[in-house]
Amino acid sequence: MTSLRTRLLAAGLVAGLTGAAQAEDISVTHWGVLMYGAPYAVAMEKGLFKQAGVDVTGILSSQGGGTTVRNVLAGGLPFGEVALSAAVAATREGIDIKIVSGGARTVDDILWVVNPNSPIKTLADLKGKRIAFTSPKSVTEMLAVLMLDKAGLKPADVTLVSTGGIGAGLTALANGGVDIAPNMDPIWARTQDKYRPYVYNKDILPPIMQTVGITTPEFAQKSAGTLRAIIDGRRRGVDFIHRNPAEAGAIFAKAYKLDPKVAETSIRNMIAIDYWSRGQLDIEGMNQMVRGLQLVGGLPPGPVDWSKLIDRSFLPTDLRS
């Protein structure tokens, strides 16, 4: 996985409460590609993690789904921001993790696109079509199933195609390999002229929490102060983005190697939909994501006992309720 680390972001965490330095990475789903990582990029660049008590300088990426969960476990990482669907699926498989914070609080940034000349225009046109999603148990798979449910269809009524990433799905769409694909910023900001919007999730779905922060019980027990500082540092990054969108866009562009105008547009688009949770967890939005996982067969019917999965003790006091 070393090739996924950026040279700019060499590994390292400093445990601020003890003053002891130890080189470690954290993991963020789709780092370097999608908007989940913007608060981390800002917090590193502006020294906000250091202000909170740690020195996070390394991000390990993944293509979403269960990959980020495996990064945290296999790499012995202290923290990962992962798809909520993947976190819940992992616990059902007996993997011992704890949800400790919120990440992306909405799916309003994701839309489904088709080629400009596509005859697909309404939800009724979905039947028999080929729909791209990123990875099994990822947010995009859940949203595809929820979109089908909204149309009164089942997954068996279409062909769902795992492409491994948003960009790969768009390539498959352009080449005729699929009929519909997900898109989202910052990719959408630079590809709007290539595809036609088909469905915006915000127009058909209730609020759905996308990502959460996870850790292992072992790390939570031995390094609680470091974990709290990581979560607090990310919150400071979110707050900085809302106060300084232009500067945050420039930082995001540098970290992701984006055109600065595309980066700033994407940042402002996310601010407009209040995309990033400051760390708080939205249980109703989490239940909506679980419903998608149940529809795809990843969970049995019935409510999830969040009290067994969530540990709010690492959140700042004002974000725990």
The CA-CA distance between the termini, in Å, is 37 Å
Looking at this structure, what is the CATH superfamily of the largest domain?
A: Periplasmic binding protein-like II
Q: What is the total tally of β strands?
A: 12
> Which structural category fits the helices and strands?
alpha/beta
Number of helices: 14
Compressed to H and E, one letter per element, the order equals EEEHHEHEHEEEHEHEHEHEHHHHHH
| Low-pLDDT segments | 1-23
The CATH class designation of the largest domain is: Alpha Beta
Quaternary form: single chain
Strands across the major sheet, in which order?
Answer: 4-3-5-12-6
Sum up the overall morphology in one term. globular
CATH architecture of the largest domain: 3-Layer(aba) Sandwich
Please report which band the strand proportion falls in: under 5%, 5-15%, 15-25%, 25-35%, 35-45% or over 45%: 5-15%
Rg over CA atoms: 19 Å
Count of domains? 2
CATH topology call of the largest domain: D-Maltodextrin-Binding Protein, domain 2
The largest pleated sheet is described as: 5 strands, mixed
Helix percentage: 25-40%
What number is the mean pLDDT? Answer: 86
